[in-house]
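Archive maintenance. Older records in this collection stored only the sequence; we are now back-filling the structure field for every entry so that each record is complete. The fields below show one back-filled record exactly as it appears after the update. Entries are processed alphabetically, and Lytic transglycosylase is next in the queue.

ARCHIVE ENTRY
Title: Lytic transglycosylase
Organism field: Methylomonas methanica
Length field: 284
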Amino acid sequence: MLKPFPRLLLLATAFLGVSVHAAQFLEAPRVQAALEQGLAAERGKGVGRNPWLAIRLYCDAATMGSPEGFMRIGRVLATSPGLPRKPELANAYLAMAASLGSEDALRYYDARHGNAELQGDCDALTGTGYTESGEAAFNMAAYLSKQPIEQQRIARLIHKLAPKYQVDASFVLAIALAESNLNPAAVSPKNAQGVMQLIPATQERFGVRQPFDPERNIMGAMAYIRWLERRFAGDWRLVAAAYNAGEGAVDRHAGIPPYAETQQYVRRVMRFAGMAAKETMRFN
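Back-filled structure field:
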């Protein structure tokens, strides 16, 4: 019996900054995208095998409330070759996952060891082996080469349409990967729809009448991103933050809002776009 579970459930609520409703978060396209991309890094599918990058991506999923994200962090720490063994830390993440309803977590839990105390996010966990330019580099082209034909077609469509809207194709593609992993049928619990996860209000604002048509969805998103770029004087970090949390939240906080999900979203988009190494990420 794992006595720390009730305490870890309380920690989970603090860690996530939201109410814990596991099924809802598991259905969210952003969570699914982070899990799929983390698995590619864990197994070396397209991107080179990189356990630290896998942990970072799984942490992004966990921050959005995913028990699977917590479980996979623990799994990597418990089983990944080349990482220093940290069974107590692995157990802590696995116990967190189990407390949120993950049955798979118990397969990797090592009852011979206790549970480490989690610090509230993954930054301390990855700090000794993770850098934006090295350990966590994400080769977007290599990753896309291993995706289904339809996703590759959508990626090419983004590159084709970007010049018309005067936006950076790599940045838009990074948004699409973070939002839905290029899934044109994706629907979030908040009814964001399509490849670029446009909510109905944004669809109406930018004239998108067929949100599940990839081209129409991408065109609307590019118009929005172009508008945000002008609004925030070309600061791509603020554009990404506004795409995630809304331009009003960026205005209220005079920068990237202090929401864990938004901060990790910006970091992920900048990494995917190849922009993370060009400037230091500074969050309010």
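Update note: The chain has 16 helices and no strands. Confidence is low (pLDDT under 50) at residues 1-26, 127-135, 277-284.
Entry marked complete.
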